[in-house]
Amino acid sequence: MGVRLIIMGPPGVGKGTQGEFLAERFGVPRLSTGDMIRAALQAGTPLGERVRVYYEAGELVPDEVVLGLIAEAFDGSEASGGFVLDGFPRTVPQADGLGELLADRSIELDAVLSLEAPEEELVDRISGRRVCGACGLVTHVRAVGANAPCPECGAALAQRSDDRAETVRNRLAVYRAQTEPLLAYYARSETGLTAVDGTGTLEAVRDRLFETLHMAEVAG
Ligand SMILES: [Zn+2]
């Protein structure tokens, strides 16, 4: 028996990685709306062509189009046994749209997970990231030290402009403003909201997630 999960969390909390761990553990696909949009563009389906119009204009893909992609995934064979939905919803109107889509199909969510970590830890994780322009290695100043060259190839390491502390703080503020109403929305819902401590190593967070879901008797 698969599980039907939504995973939410701020930038830097490791949501994508943990979503993969959960998908693997329960043998269900991780439905990342970012990946689904890219796949639709490549596949050139009718929905994919609608995505392309917005994509090429540099505009956000509207909610109804993203919901269409999610509906396709729910109705296909891949997600019939469950899913880990990652990257959607991000707003209350999106959650309403998703709720309708689930109700139409009599699909019940097992859990809505919110990975949480203090802002300082998230800023530190992201702003400490360094990328090698030559070999593509991604590392962290904690691992290599400040101003160190690439440990793989000796080229210079750089910080992505998106990863600057100031930018990260802005991204986190945007996330909070957008997501706080959404967290309250799910806390009030029948499924409820399950907050999970996202601090510590990837493995520690993973084990915490597994334990939380087993305690909720989701594992079936
Ligand atoms: Zn390198």
In a few lines, what is going on in this structure?
Strands 2-3-1-4-8 form a five-stranded parallel sheet, sandwiched between helices.
Structure description:
This protein has 220 residues and is of the alpha/beta class. The protein has a single domain, classed as Rossmann fold. 50% of the residues lie in helices and 14% in strands. It has helices spanning 15-26, 33-43, 46-56, 63-75, 92-104, 119-127, 141-144, 165-188, 202-215, and strands at 4-8, 30-32, 83-86, 111-116, 129-132, 138-140, 157-158, 194-197. It has a five-stranded parallel beta sheet, with helices on both faces. A three-stranded antiparallel beta sheet has the order 6-5-7. Strand 5 (129-132) and strand 6 form a beta hairpin. Helix 2 crosses helix 3 and helix 4 packs parallel to helix 5 (92-104). The N and C termini lie close together (6 Å). Zinc ion binds next to loops.
List the keywords.
binds zinc ion; Rossmann fold; 220 residues; alpha/beta; 5-stranded parallel beta sheet; 8 strands; 50% helix; globular
End-to-end Cα distance: 6 Å
Taking strands numbered 1, 2, ... along the chain, how are they ordered across the largest sheet? Answer: 2-3-1-4-8
Largest sheet: 5 strands, parallel
What's the CATH superfamily, by name? Answer: P-loop containing nucleotide triphosphate hydrolases
Number of strands: 8
Q: Beta-strand percentage?
A: 5-15%
Return the structural class: alpha/beta
Give the helix proportion (percent range): 40-55%
Unique ligands: zinc ion
Low-confidence stretches: none
Shape: globular
Averaging pLDDT over every residue, what do you get?
92
